[in-house]
Amino acid sequence: MAMASCPAGAPRFSFTCRPKIHPRVHFVFIPSYSSSSSSPSVKAISYSNARRRNILAARAHVVSEEKSTSQDRMLVFVPPHPLIKHWVSFLRNVQTHCPIFRNAMAELGRLLLYEASRDWLPIVNGEIQSPMGVASVEFIDPREPMVVVPILRAGLALAEHASSILPATKTYHLGLSRDEETLQPSIYLNKLPDKFPEGSRVFVVDPMLATGGTIVAALNLLKERGIDNNQIRVISAVAAPPALQKLSENFPGLHVYTGIIDPTVDDKGFIIPGLGDVGDRSYGT
């Protein structure tokens, strides 16, 4: 990398004294003179047809390989956003009081829903009249059904801002409780429809993926109602290996978005270090 020489006394970051950086990739142009004009026009150098076909074939192979991997395996995403780490830290703190805890959970849910919906929402293109002219625009297609399923009661806090992130969503509540001795889930409230509309995109919100019993039971209820694994995004604050292992074995192609992955679960089914009882800490009861 060549450096420009700076005159003595020049400010270090002045516009007249900047290091000259040669970019790693150059766009190379050659002049092409047309017969009708003496001035040169600029034409980009292009690859030969054979080389272009090879490049496109290689890219197509990579894309198809990625799609195959996505369909065959469960994918877990831990977005590296500093605000996600910030709110997880608030939730960790045993001294975080109930209203602040619930607000932190809601903010974490907002960020995770944003990440989970990236490149997944249906888009409709069109044109609108702005104050200054016609503009090409993209909107979320309201004809494509989007569904939020919070698992009660702790899931309510994590899904609190779903309606502000996802336009035109429907919310179906699902209540599951876990036996403290057997750690097996039981259903006490089921507001799911008998059949979901075709093409539905479903966000299942469960703050703690610990042993995996609750989330597996919830996803099985969705599958019974016509939802495939690739139509589901699971949103959680904290996940642990036992739950992720169960999900991976039972739901290939599933996508899980979580704030953090903790190392273990204790014999009572709580994630360590985890957040404690999220329902109790969210609602104070």
TrEMBL record:
GO terms for molecular function: GTP binding; uracil phosphoribosyltransferase activity. CDD domains: PRTases_typeI (cd06223). Its cofactor is Mg(2+). The keyword GTP-binding applies. InterPro entries: PRTase-like, PRTase_dom, UPRT, UPRTase/APRTase. Belongs to the UPRTase family. NCBIfam families: PRK00129.1 (NF001097), upp (TIGR01091). This is uracil phosphoribosyltransferase. It comes from Juglans regia.
